[in-house]
Write a structure and sequence with these properties.
59 residues, alpha+beta, 1 helix, 2 strands, flat
């Protein structure tokens, strides 16, 4: 089977970046880091969506 490498399109300002944690979040222990990351991407011009799983302490 021949599988061709697919590259996604480059992110542009105004695109959305989502924070998720399917295996369980640690944000209750490090919420300041999550917020710092959110601010960083927003300052670069991206929209940020933080899913509830990223704010939980466990899966």
């Amino acid at each position: 089977m021949d599988m061709k490498l697919m590259k996604p399109q480059r992110l542009e300002k105004g695109d959305t970046i989502a924070f998720v944690a399917p295996a369980g979040g640690l944000a209750t222990l490090t919420l300041h880091r999550l917020e710092k990351g959110r601010r960083y991407f927003e300052e670069l011009g991206y929209k940020v969506k933080i899913f509830p799983t990223a704010k939980r302490n466990s899966g």
